[in-house]
Amino acid sequence: MSYRPRVDPTEYAREKARKIEAAKRRREEIARKRAMEEGDTAPDPSPDPSPSRSYQEPSRSSPIAAERMQQKPPPPTFTPSPNKFAPSQQWLVGPLNPEGTEFDPAMFEKNRQQSGPTEDSDRPSTCLAINHSQTECCIGSSDHASYTISTRNGEPRSRLYSRNAGHMDWVSAACYLSDNRVMTGGMDGKVCLWRRGGSDCRDLYGEQGSVSVLSSLSNSTPIAASAGYDGSVIVWNCSSSSPSETKIENRRKQLPPITAFASDSEGNLAVSGSNNGLVSLWDLNKGVCLKAALGKHGTQVQKVINDENCGEIFYTAGVDGKIGMWDTRSQLGSATGNEIGATVSTSPFTSPSRSGAAPISGLVNVDDNHVLAAGGNDVALLDKRMNLQVVGKPMGGHKKPIASLCLGGGGLVSFSGSIDGMVIAHDLRTTRPIYGMGANKKSASFLGTTDTRLIVTGDDGHALVYAFS
Predict the structure, then answer these.
(1) Which of 88, 48, 80, 7 is nearest to 397 (CA)?
(2) How many CA atoms lie within 13 A of 98 on its CB side?
(3) How does the average pLDDT of the chain come out, rounded?
(4) Strands 223-228 and 371-375
(5) What band does 384 get if pLDDT is binned at 50, 70 and 90?
(6) What are the φ/ψ torsions at residue 317 (nearest 5 degrees)?
(7) For residue 445, which of 58, 134, 161, 172 has the smallest C-alpha distance?
(8) Distance (Å, rounded) from C-alpha 103 to C-alpha 447?
(9) Residue ranges under compositional bias (Basic and acidic residues) (predicted)?
(10) What integer is the mean pLDDT of 246-275?
(11) How would DSSP label each residue in 437-458?
(12) Among 195, 275, 191, 297, which Cα is nearest to 231's?
């Protein structure tokens, strides 16, 4: 068994708290010196009892401070929604099993026959999907197989590969249909619809090159969409024993390979992002590409998500470090005057000490508070109602760039995984790191949460399940 370094969550939280307190004392000392130089009353040295980063009104006794207050509006703050439950205490403290329950693909007998019983699987995981009932997850692998495991205890359930069924190349995408059947897509250009139990599958060929994205379009009907390297989108209706397909292509010109895709909650409208930065709009009901060039990032689009409160608004994130908001009800493209053609765009991780903007690898909706969480060099909260302005300061803790991002604990705790295998949890109410875990020997590329579990997998091919209840 290989050694996997771990980080004590309690010690990590204490160390971060000490550093934060020391930095706060330094800021207070600098503020007192400046106030004395300006002839103002020294600020109260007692620490602020509130852990939030909300705007503090400056003292009106100083003319300079009063003038600054009039000129500069208060920055946005994150306030938890009263309609959502607060996270349980365990999400704020750390998992009940700090080491995690480990799943190794070599546990399966067929893998042991190939690699030997003492060897660990080292094939990188390529995707992660969790079913609608949150009882099972599917992990795609570069060994051409997919694995389903229990989200409760990490127990292996099935290996989706056999001599006569499965992919002939890397599994690049996976999703669960509304009836909990698994659908996988591969670099071989094939989509596999697996029977329950994983013993056999139905091969679906849409002639769209390598499949890059699979997305379930409905919570009540087994319908999914696949996006491929030929720039097309295929809608698969799996309600009957013979699934039907509707291929959607741009009529004028073939689009570049699609790397990110998301639809609204009804599965009607969708936005895709390509490897050259192109953003396109699709009508899945009518089967048409409404606008091939909605806008364009500078480089590859990494993430596309739909707004939880408005199905006609989408958000994209790219390797160019920009996040764009696309309101499909209004004019987009060159008419907006925006750099990438979006309604609004921002670069939250641009720093004078770094060259350019950090690539965005994670983008999620935070609760229903009109806030986004983005992962680049750090984790940042963005206010949708204030042109994606950063809320407070980016949440640090990582030594390497972030590779994945998700939410847990009722949507008020963020988990970010970096390319060095560390997973760090932040309390979004205080924007402070609360604990960390060494969850992968390489990159923690994929994260997922249920109501009580965190699942982590990545480039070492293993998966860890952390329990919070």
Answers:
(1) 7
(2) 14
(3) 85
(4) unpaired
(5) very high
(6) -135, 140
(7) 172
(8) 14
(9) 1-37
(10) 95
(11) EE--SS---EEEE-SSEEEEE-
(12) 275
Q: In this structure, which amino acid lies at residue 120? A: D
How far is the C-alpha of 174 from the C-alpha of 151, rounded, in Å?
16
Residue 116: per-residue pLDDT: 47
Q: Cα(335)–Cα(57) distance, rounded to whole angstroms?
A: 39
In contact, 149 and 158? CB cutoff 8 Å:
no
Query: What distance in Å separates the CA atoms of residue 139 and residue 332, rounded to the nearest whole number?
Result: 37
In the chain, helix, strand, coil percent, each to 5?
Answer: 15, 40, 50
Residue with tokens 């990110």: 260
Answer whether 156's CB lies under 8 Å from 192's CB: no
Structure tokens at 294: 């909605």
Residue with the two structure tokens 């696949």: 226
Q: Are 24 and 51 in contact (CB under 8 A)?
A: no
Judged by average pLDDT, the poorest of 71-75, 407-411, 436-440 is: 71-75
Q: Report helix, strand or coil for 409.
A: coil
* CA–CA separation, 434 and 415 (whole Å): 10
pLDDT of residue 22: 83
Strand ranges inside 267-370, DSSP E: 269-274, 278-283, 288-296, 301-306, 313-318, 323-327, 344-346, 362-366
Q: How far is CA 243 from CA 181, 215, 224, 257, 277, in A?
A: 13, 16, 11, 25, 32
Contact between residue 388 and residue 324 where contact means Cβ atoms under 8 Å apart: no
State how far the Cα of 436 lies from the Cα of 13, in Å rounded to an integer. 8
**CB-based contacts of 235, cutoff 8 Å, min separation 6:** 217, 223, 224, 225, 245, 246, 248, 284, 287
C-alpha distances in Å from residue 449, one per residue of 135, 171, 221, 414, 416 = 11, 21, 23, 10, 12
Cβ atoms of 446 and 125 closer than 8 Å: yes
E runs forming strands in 31-143: 101-103, 125-130, 136-141
Total residue count of the chain as it appears in this document: 469
Under a CB-based contact definition with an 8 Å cutoff, are residues 274 and 256 in contact? Answer: yes
In order of 67, 140, 241, the CA distances from 165 in angstroms are 71, 15, 17
Which residue ranges form the domains of the chain, and what is each CATH number? 1-44+56-104+376-469 (no CATH), 105-375 (2.130.10.10)
| 217 neighbors 267 (Cβ within 8 angstroms) | yes
Could you tell me if 66 and 60 are in contact, meaning their C-beta atoms sit under 8 angstroms apart? Answer: yes
How much is the pLDDT for 42?
44
